[in-house]
């Protein structure tokens, strides 16, 4: 069984690497004069879980450190995460949200309850037939359309 903690951990690692590489790419594009990534795109990556990577890239590459709206919005993201965590916790506490996450197991295949002796093993191109109780009823009337 796959753990939710493992999935969240891999998600945050991937998002941080993506945000770090996006900030690095934007800095390189700024130096070469190419088309740049939008601030909204960078901020959205940081908000979706890549804040640590974006903040690290901001310091390593000295990118967007003086641009005030971007910098203040980037610094507000952990506060939004804290508020979201409090709302989820309150929702679980007051019964609005479920107490447990569902298990990440694959659903089992549901096969009809048929024993091998009940099946028709005649030689046909369609293979063995199910007993009459598991067959679909025939269609007597065809649609006019």
UniProtKB/TrEMBL annotation:
Protein's name according to its UniProt entry: DUF1294 domain-containing protein
Transmembrane segments: 40-57, 78-97
Biased composition (Basic residues): 130-139
Domain of life: Bacteria
Entry keywords, A to Z: Membrane, Transmembrane, Transmembrane helix
Pfam families to which the protein is assigned, alphabetical: DUF1294 (PF06961)
Region (Disordered): 126-145
Coiled-coil stretches: none
Signal peptide positions on this chain: none
The keyword Membrane appears for this protein: yes
């Amino acid at each position: 069984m796959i753990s939710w903690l493992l999935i969240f951990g891999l998600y945050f690692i991937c998002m941080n690497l993506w945000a770090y590489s996006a900030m690095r790419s934007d800095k390189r594009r700024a130096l070469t004069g190419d088309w740049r990534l939008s601030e909204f795109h960078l901020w959205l990556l940081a908000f979706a879980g890549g804040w640590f990577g974006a903040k690290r890239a901001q310091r390593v590459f000295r990118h967007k450190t003086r641009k005030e709206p971007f910098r203040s919005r980037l610094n507000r993201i952990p506060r939004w995460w804290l508020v979201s965590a409090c709302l989820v916790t309150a929702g679980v506490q007051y019964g609005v949200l479920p107490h447990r996450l569902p298990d990440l197991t694959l659903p089992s295949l549901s096969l009809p309850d048929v024993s091998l002796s009940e099946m028709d093993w005649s030689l046909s191109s369609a293979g063995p037939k199910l007993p009459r109780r598991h067959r679909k009823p025939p269609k007597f009337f065809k649609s006019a359309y």
